[in-house]
Amino acid sequence: MAKIKSTLDIQLDLTRPVEELTEVISAVIASQPARRKEILKGLDIVVGNALAEIQAQEEKGSENRQ
User: Fold this and answer.
1) What distance in Å separates the CA atoms of residue 10 and residue 42, rounded to the nearest whole number?
2) pLDDT > 80? residue 66
3) What's the CA gap between 23 and 36, in Å, rounded?
4) Do residues 61 and 53 touch, judged by C-beta distance below 8 A?
5) Listed residue (54, 50, 28) closest to 40, CA to CA
6) DSSP assignments along 33-64, one per residue
7) At residue 13, does pLDDT exceed 70?
8) What are the angstrom distances between the C-alpha of 6 and each of 9, 29, 42, 46, 60?
9) pTM of the full predicted structure?
């Protein structure tokens, strides 16, 4: 039986995280043009949640120092 996978093998240079992740996101979007908006909205939610968590930790840290 044939097994068909749509995968992307990735190696990242962790010294250039933003550039590398941008390239990966661009590759995924290029492979799924009809889902571009859905993919970007999902990423926006995940990134927004991560930033909110960092902000909350920073605020908690500054409160503990006062």
Assistant:
1) 20
2) no
3) 15
4) no
5) 28
6) GGGHHHHHHHHHHHHHHHHHHHHHHHHHHHHH
7) yes
8) 10, 13, 20, 23, 43
9) 0.77
